[in-house]
Every structure is written in structure tokens, then in C-alpha cells.
Amino acid sequence: xxxxxxxxxxxxxxxxxxxxxxxxxxxxxxxxxxxxxxxxxxxxxxxxxxxxxxxxxxxxxxxxxxxxxxxxxxxxxxxxxxxxxxxxxxxxxxxxxxxxxxxxxxxxxxxxxxxxxxxxxxxxxxxxxxxxxxxxxxxxxxxxxxxxxxxxxxxxxxxxxxxxxxxxxxxxxxxxxxxxxxxxxxxxxxxxxxxxxxxxxxxxxxxxxxxxxxxxxxxxxxxxxxxxxxxxxxxxxxxxxxxxxxxxxxxxxxxxxxxxxxxxxxxxxxxxxxxxxxxxxxxxxxxxxxxxxxxxxxxxxxxxxxxxxxxxxxxxxxxxxxxxxxxxxxxxxxxxxxxxxxxxxxxxxxxxxxxxxxxxxxxxxxxxxxxxxxxxxxxxxxxxxxxxxxxxxxxxxxxxxxxxxxxxxxxxxxxxxxxxxxxxxxxxxxxxxxxxxxxxxxxxxxxxxxxxxxxxxxxxxxxxxxxxxxxxxxxxxxxxxxxxxxxxxxxxxxxxxxxxxxxxxxxxxxxxxxxxxxxxxxxxxxxxxxxxxxxxxxxxxxxxxxxxxxxxxxxxxxxxxxxxxxxxxxxxxxxxxxxxxxxxxxxxxxxxxxxxxxxxxxxxxxxxxxxxxxxxxxxxxxxxxxxxxxxxxxxxxxxxxxxxxxxxxxxxxxxxxxxxxxxxxxxxxxxxxxxxxxxxxxxxxxxxxxxxxxxxxxxxxxxxxxxxxxxxxxxxxxxxxxxxxxxxxxxxxxxxxxxxxxxxxxxxxxxx
Length: 752
What we know:
4 domains; 25 helices; alpha+beta; seven-stranded mixed β-sheet; extended; Beta-lactamase; Penicillin-binding protein 2a (Domain 2)
């Protein structure tokens, strides 16, 4: 009985234990099920809700192809509407390695070409390495391998023909645009260029990147990785928005005149470090031309164009990269220099405005002056003696200007430098503008003041200096120099127009008028004689500045016209001219003649009316009358009416021929050869050497050679030191009889 009870208890315990185990297992299974459900729920929630857009995007990306529609970059125009930069049609050549691989491995539809033959064929057309192209084909996971960005029309046509003729798969030409610069090297440092991605890298192209770039479009279509159509079709087009157009203040004609003059000047004087030039609207600050030398071709900006720079590379003195940077550099605003005597314009303005000098002021120059234990010499070592204010400016007298600077005082002088904008960038709409280097106002000594007064011991950019100089002669108003006149969007709507409001008025109208009077005297009778232009009143100032203790100099010339109401102002600088050219190293002798030539072209082009003296009128160009068939007496009278002289060859009563022919345009007072009974010679004339001769000697020599001569340059000087500086046709050249040679006159006695 007891055993049965014990057995029943045991069985009951076992059953109870089993039930507990079963219950716990069931609960555990339920809990595990709940946990799995929760985990699955959250996973599904994450995939379908939280990451829905991400995963949907990935799915779409796997099933669609996106093709970028390139926006046309905005066009850059000059002031007259001439195109300086434009985006022309081009095609980018791409490979689809997966498509190529599928084609060459398709046994059902075998192709006649291989990856190797395709690489070789493309390499020959594109001028590239075949092995590099072949390597790109191995990346079979890629559908887009660019092998040629923006191929020109001819190259693209050759690739297309090759692909079609050989039934090539996996080579595609995508419509694109290529930047083209119609004027090549003209205004290169100003316009700048774009890189491989059609993004502005330099100049206006970089500064106005946001406005020029536009907004690319997109075509989305349904394709698998093998470029096959999907079961469903899908395509959506998002239009590109073209970039905005820029219209500049720059004028291509004026730019050409400036660049031509600078290049000739640098070549003539073998300037080791090139030159720069700026032509600016004196009343608004608008840049009409800005040039820097050495130059380069915008359509081939990676090539070092300048011969001097190429030679430095060949000699191992510089790398290609360094010379590229040098040719891209805009010296007019990227570099600073000691201005020398051209800065005296600002000292004069400040002294007049402060009332410490006036036109009655006199100052004595003994050839030097001592300041703080240092002796500072004048360009005239013997001294200028007693001189008026106007004469001191015309003589570019250092001791006189030191005197004026000391009268102003250190504090006031420093304030004027700030007010003229020299302590900061000008704010021009072009990148990379440098800031001048000046002594701190807290440590500005009397010696500093003395040196600053005549433009030494500090540096400025040519751009900052001409902006300040314009304020000195335009009535006293400082303007921000600028290049972009207006911006128009792709629909032609003007979104920006420049505001000509001046920054501040630095000096009074009265002071400015006196400054103009003094600077006109500089060109008429002073160190700027070689900057004269027939028929025009020119104001100007020469400059020659030492480059530290190197023995090298920077020479310059600032000029404006008309002198009584400036419309245009120009500053040209040349860095380190050779001392072995036979020309006295100074701005007045080296730069002023170039400025004269450029101004003589610019002013008539701008419509500035000339006003000639009686003497100048006699030397004006005239048209040769046709006197063939006339009697000798009739021909003489006809020529006399045109203020032309004559030379008779032969013996007879009737004119049978003449040189120059009727209708030719020649300088006034020239001589016409009249043939009477004798045939005109058909022999060529040889151009003689005229450089260094006096005007009279040059005229006699040219006439004896059967040629005519036209004078330019220094026209208002009777000095015996006036000589021919250059001639338009090189000596030894064979030309027709009666050919006109233009010679540039200059006063070789000028020092500054």
C-alpha cells in the first residue's frame, strides 16, 4: 500500500515536472516568437518606411541610366558686342567597358574587331596611348569611361565614322560644349580660361563662375546594366539652364593698340620681367584695356608661348609649371612695384589740397637734400636751382617733392594715402589683387615721408596707382575700377548693371584743375615731352624707380587726355629694361614714346576731336592730285594748292608720270616727283637707316632714297636733341618708290 502511494507520488511529481517544462517551453516559444516578430517588424519597418526612399533610389539607379545635359556656359562680350569667350559645340567620347565586353564575347553574333584593335583605332584618331585606352576597357563594372573630353568637330566625325564602318559597340559620343576664345591671346590675363570640367580657373572665367556656369540638365531613362531596354519604359527630361552673359567695359580695339605697343616696347628694350598697361575711363573707373606681358594663347593655355620663358625652361632654370604660372599672371593687379616719380602726382595733389603750396610757390634745388643723416639726390646732380611749382613738376625734382611732403606732415600724408585707396585692394571684379606694402603709420619716420613723397620705399599695384591718379585729375573722385558693365541671363534679362557712384571725393575740383595744369606742362615742356601727340593736349608724368639694391629699375609713364577734361587715362610700366640698348634708362625715354603711339591711336578711335596748330596742319596727311597730262605749270599750281613740293625729272612740257600716283595719301609738305618725257623707274627703293637722325636729316635721307616720311611723337619741341627713335619699316627693306615711312621722334635729353 505504502509502495503504491510512494509510486503514485513519484508519478505525480514527474507529471507535474513535465507540465512545468511544457509550460515553460511554450512560454519560451511564445516569447521567442514575439521577439522574432518584433525584430522582423522593425526590420520591415526600417526597409519599407525608414529607408524606403534610400532603397527605392538604389532600385531606380539599378534600373535607370542618367545622362547629363551640359548647360551652355555664358558668353563674354567686349563693350562693342564682340565675342571674347563662347561655348561652341563639341562631343565627349566615352567607352562602356561592359558593353564592349559583352560584344566581343557574344558567340552568337561575333564581331570583326577586338579590344586591342579598337584601342589602336581610337588611339590613332585621338593621338593617345593605345595601351591606356585598352586598360580602361578592363573595368567591366563601369558603363562610363571618358577617353576624350570635348573633342572638336573633325575629331568627333572621324570617331563616328570609325565606329559606324566597323560596327563597334560600346563607344558613344555625347553632345557637349567647348570653350573657345576668338581673339586668342588678346586680354588673356583678364579673360582667363576654363579647365577640363568647363569650370573657370582664372581671370573673369573664375571670378564670375557662378554667373557663367549655368545649370546642367538631366535625362533619366530605363536601362539595365547591359544597356538593354527594361520591361517597362521610362524617360524624364530636366532642361539645362544656360549661364549668364557678361558685357565688359573692355574694348578689343583699344586692347589691341595697348598690347601691340607693350610687346614692341618690351622687345626693343629687352625687358627681363615684362611689362603691364592699363587704359581706364578717367571718370568712371571702367577698364578699357588691361595688358600684361609675357602673354599666352587662351585656346592653348598650357603651352608656354613666350620665347624668353621657353629658353628659361630649356636652360633648366625654371620648370614648365612655373613658367605657365608666370605667363598667366596679371602684372597690372597681381604684382606690386615701387612707382617712382609717377607717385608725385599724389604728393602734389595732397600738398595743394592742404594749402601748403600753390602755383606761386618756389623751391630751390641744389642737386640733393639731407634727411635724418641720409643724402637723397635729384636726377639732375647739378640741381635745378630756383623753380616754380609747375617747373618742379616738369623737372620731376626729388628735393622739391621732399620739401612738399615735409610741409604736408607725416600724419596728413598717411591719411591721404588711405583716402586715395592705396592701403587696400581697389575692389576690382577680378581675383588675385595684391595689396601694396607700406610702413606702419606708428613707425612712419621723416625719412619714410621724404622717400614716399617721390615714390620710393613702398610698393603699390599699377591698378591701385592709376585709380588714385585718376582721382587726382578727374575732379577729385575715387572710383572702383571695374570690368563688367552688365550681366544678362539666358533669356536676355539684365540682372546686374554697374553703378558709377564714386567711392569718395579725395580732393577738390579746384585742386584737380591745378594738378592737370602742372601735368600738361610735364608733357609740353618737361620730362614727358616724348609723350606728346599731335593735335591733342596731353597730361602726364614719368617715373623711374630703383628695385632695391639690385641696380635694376622699373620705368613707367602715366598720361591722360584731353588735359583739360580727361576722358581716358593710361599707365604703362616696364620691369628691368636692358641698359645695353643705347637709350637712357628712364620712363621718359623708354615708355613715353610707346604711350604716345598708343594714345595717337586710341584718341581718334574714341572720337576725341584733335585741335592742330598751324604748323601741325601743314604737316597733315593730304591726297596727291593726279597731274598726268597737265602742263608743268598747271601741275606746279595744283601741288602748291595742297602744300606739296615737287621734283621734275626729264625735259618736256607735259607731265607723263608721277610718284606717288594720284590718289595716294602722303604727309603734308612732301615732295612729288614729276616725270616729263622720261619714263618712271620701276626699280625698288631700299629703306635707309633713320634711327638717331634729326628730323631734318631723316627727311633728307628718306627723300634721297625716293621715299616719303611721316613724323609722330615729340612734335612741340625745338630741342636739338630731338631724334628719330623708331621707324615703321626696317632699314634694308625693298619698297615701291614714294612709300611713306612713319618715324617716332623723341627728345633724347630727357631724364627723370
